């Protein structure tokens, strides 16, 4: 016999909350989606001004799962989907003050000036290095230096981590921040050997190799996706609805915001630092203060528009990342108008630059004039940018990306324990399920399926 529909409150209309709400509704449940702000989308946002398009959150979506493809199609967005320019293949890494293309194939690696001969020879040892014990939790830096050497750490992994996490390899856990890297060593004993063998296997569960996955946006930027999700679930959505308390009384969950709401289950899909400020009770208070220990460094996102002749660099790639050892201020710059059309007026370009993170968090909190001075100084030195921008859009994230630091497994275990001991209370989001936009989409879909299965049995 089919279980009766449940009433569910989803807290947070970011990507995870939107996708969870969509799927729960498809599964027949009554859903109330509560969002504290006056808009949906969370960290996803796009601004179009004077012909310039600025993303204040994620710039792209990696189509790494067939479920992402299917979701985009179900939303009727296939016609608005845009694939990044395939000719823009270069990923530049700064070395000795100059952007150098990251080698993307073994022949390119052998001839690249990004790494010294010593570093290339050191890489040949990797298949013969013993794997670490499974119960040893290493930082990403320790793991990479042990297997690949210090130079690969400094000139490949360090800038990559700055671009993805705004993070520090010395503090990130390889097991939790880069689980596939950790699994390659554990399952194959070698990163190089594991990569070769992995490419021979058929993809499982609809996953697509990141090398082959398409990099996407939409005709008017990433907000097209979240706006459309908001439209589809509009009848469930309540904006300007902050939540301060969630409690269970006589077997029923109550969500306290603008007005008390009685539900069968609750999904917490707001950022960890926001959830730490809420009160959760099930008889005694559920201690959520430990969420404050999850590190969220500040990050500044600054999009600048220039006349094309102001920039000497060809901008023939995805962007540029800066290793810590190069001693610049910015973390990296995306060549936004090279990736997608209609990101800048004819004859202009847009550059999206990031500051702060774990490397220099104080830079994300500078005033606008000081911040622009540092950015323009680095862009002049590295890309040959001359003069002032004709357009600037700035977004400061005081608490940006959660850092999956060494010991992060303790936090994940606490989420599992709370869900086990307090039936009907669930959590999903980038604090638990991965930090990319695609991860957040899948986290919402997966949480909905998990809730549906468990609620059917109650």
General description of the model:
The chain is α/β, with parallel strands linked by helices and 458 residues long. It folds into three domains: 7-43 and 223-294 and 403-456, FAD/NAD(P)-binding domain, CATH 3.50.50; 46-87 and 295-397, Polyamine Oxidase, Chain A, domain 2 (Alpha-Beta Complex), CATH 3.90.660.20; 103-199, Orthogonal Bundle (protoporphyrinogen ix oxidase, domain 3), CATH 1.10.3110. It is built from 15 helices and 22 strands. It has helices spanning 15-26, 66-74, 106-111, 117-123, 140-148, 150-164, 174-177, 179-188, 191-199, 223-232, 272-275, 336-339, 368-383, 409-421, 437-456; strands at 7-11, 30-34, 46-49, 52-55, 61-63, 81-83, 90-95, 98-101, 214-218, 237-238, 245-249, 252-256, 261-263, 265-268, 279-282, 285-286, 299-307, 317-321, 332-334, 348-356, 391-397, 425-427. Strand 7 (90-95) and strand 8 (98-101) form a beta hairpin. Helix 1 runs parallel beside helix 10, helix 1 (15-26) packs parallel to helix 15 (437-456) and helix 8 (179-188) packs across helix 9. The longest helix has 20 residues, at 437-456. The two termini are 13 Å apart.
Structure, briefly:
32% of the residues lie in helices and 22% in strands. The chain is of the alpha/beta class.
């Amino acid at each position: 016999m089919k279980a009766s529909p449940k009433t569910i409150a989803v807290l947070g209309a970011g990507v995870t909350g939107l996708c969870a709400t969509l799927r729960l509704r498809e599964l027949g449940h009554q859903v109330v989606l509560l969002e504290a702000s006056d808009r949906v989308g969370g960290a996803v946002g796009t601004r179009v001004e004077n012909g310039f398009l600025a993303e204040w959150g994620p710039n792209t979506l990696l189509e790494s799962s067939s479920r992402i493809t299917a979701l985009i199609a179900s939303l009727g967005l296939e016609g608005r989907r845009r694939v990044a320019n395939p000719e823009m293949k270069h990923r530049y890494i700064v070395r000795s003050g100059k952007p150098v293309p990251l080698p993307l194939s073994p022949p390119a690696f052998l001839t690249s000036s990004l790494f010294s001969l010593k570093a290339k020879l050191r890489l040949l040892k990797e298949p013969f290095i013993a794997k670490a014990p499974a119960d040893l939790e290493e930082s990403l830096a320790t793991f990479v230096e042990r297997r690949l050497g210090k130079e690969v750490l400094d000139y490949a992994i360090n800038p990559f981590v700055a671009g993805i996490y705004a993070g520090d390899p010395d503090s990130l856990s390889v097991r939790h921040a880069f689980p596939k890297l950790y699994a390659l060593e554990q399952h194959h004993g070698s990163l190089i050997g594991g990569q070769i063998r992995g490419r021979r296997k058929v993809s499982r569960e609809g996953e697509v190799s990141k090398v082959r996955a398409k990099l996407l946006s939409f005709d008017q930027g990433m907000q097209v996706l979240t706006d459309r999700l908001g439209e589809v679930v509009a009848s469930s959505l309540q904006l300007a609805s902050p939540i301060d308390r969630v409690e269970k009384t006589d077997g029923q969950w109550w969500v306290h915001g603008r007005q008390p709401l009685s539900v069968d289950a609750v999904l917490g899909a707001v950022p960890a630092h926001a959830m730490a400020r809420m009160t959760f009770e099930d008889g005694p208070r559920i201690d959520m203060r430990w969420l404050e220990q999850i590190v969220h460094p500040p990050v500044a996102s600054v999009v600048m528009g220039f006349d094309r002749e102001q920039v000497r660099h060809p901008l023939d790639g995805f962007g540029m990342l800066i290793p810590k050892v190069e001693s610049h201020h910015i973390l990296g710059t995306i060549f936004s108008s090279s990736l997608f059309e209609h990101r800048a007026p004819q004859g202009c370009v847009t550059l999206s630059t990031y500051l702060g993170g774990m490397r220099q968090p104080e830079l994300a909190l500078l005033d606008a004039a000081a911040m622009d001075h540092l950015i323009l100084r680095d862009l002049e030195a590295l890309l040959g940018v001359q003069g002032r921008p004709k357009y600037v859009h700035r977004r400061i994230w005081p608490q940006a990306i959660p850092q999956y630091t060494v010991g992060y497994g303790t936090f994940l275990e606490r989420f599992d324990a709370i869900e086990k001991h307090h039936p009907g209370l669930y959590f999903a989001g980038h604090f638990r399920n991965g930090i990319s936009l695609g991860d957040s989409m899948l986290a919402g879909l997966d949480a909905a399926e998990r809730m549906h299965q468990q609620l059917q049995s109650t």
